[in-house]
Amino acid sequence: MEKVRSLFYRTDGHGLVHPNLSERYSWQMWHPGVNSVCPEGLAVDRNKFVVRFLIHELHLYSNRDYGALVIRHHGQVVHYSITSGRYWKTRFMGPDDIRIGHVWTDPHHRGERLGMFAIAKIAETMGRPGRNFWYVISEDNLGAVRTAEAVGMSCVAHGRWVRPLGLRLMSFYEMGPMLKNPE
């Protein structure tokens, strides 16, 4: 059984840093539709959206908030942050919670605080009482760790990504004990 160590970040959306988005960029909240399996103009990771679209259409997420915050530069997608509810891979979440991830930023646009903007804007637009936002990161993804901490999310637990028998379809996040003083 393959195991990758993960960090579990959480926020209720309050107290986050809200960086401004440079005028060079535009953003939108994308939601799936009959003719929209993934955001228009997406050149990478289309398969990630197709799989999540099927999970959404089969009502396997705990809520109907699957979508993505998409950032464009001159019309080209340079960042996306996928949002989804709880499902078999994220059973530690509450039924109304949102997971932010998979996240991607074009290498030429890294360092522009696009990830911070996306997390804060997702929490602002999708927040409601009792809802938590989760960002689960491989512990060796230092850029994502810096982003989560800079925007004000708290690391609440360590855990791992478990892939039983090496099968991706059966993989899931296993959260360890909650940290006593999340910082």
Overview of this protein structure:
With 183 residues, the protein is α+β, with helices and mostly antiparallel strands. It has helices at residues 46-57, 114-126, 142-151, and strands at 2-11, 25-30, 67-73, 76-84, 98-105, 133-138, 154-163, 172-178. The protein has an eight-stranded mixed β-sheet, covered by helices on one side. A hairpin with an 8-residue loop joins strand 7 (154-163) and strand 8 (172-178). The longest helix is centred in the middle third of the chain and has 13 residues, at 114-126.
Strand order of the largest sheet: 2-3-4-5-6-1-7-8
The main pleated sheet reads as:
8 strands, mixed
Number of distinct helices: 3
What is the string of helix and strand elements?
Answer: EEHEEEHEHEE
Provide the residue-averaged pLDDT: 93
Global shape: globular
Radius of gyration: 16 Å
CATH topology: Aminopeptidase
Write the CATH homologous superfamily: Gcn5-related N-acetyltransferase (GNAT)
Number of individual domains? 1
Distance between the ends: 31 Å
Low-pLDDT parts are none
| Assigned CATH class | Alpha Beta
Number of strands: 8
Strand content: 25-35%
Helix content: 10-25%
CATH architecture heading: 3-Layer(aba) Sandwich
- How would you classify the helix and strand content by structural class? alpha+beta
Q: Which features does this protein show?
A:
183 residues, alpha+beta, Aminopeptidase, eight-stranded mixed beta sheet, 3 helices
Short description:
The chain contains three helices and eight strands, in the order ββαβββαβαββ.
Question: Topology of this protein?
Answer:
Layout: E1 2-11, E2 25-30, H1 46-57, E3 67-73, E4 76-84, E5 98-105, H2 114-126, E6 133-138, H3 142-151, E7 154-163, E8 172-178
Helix pairs in contact: 2-3
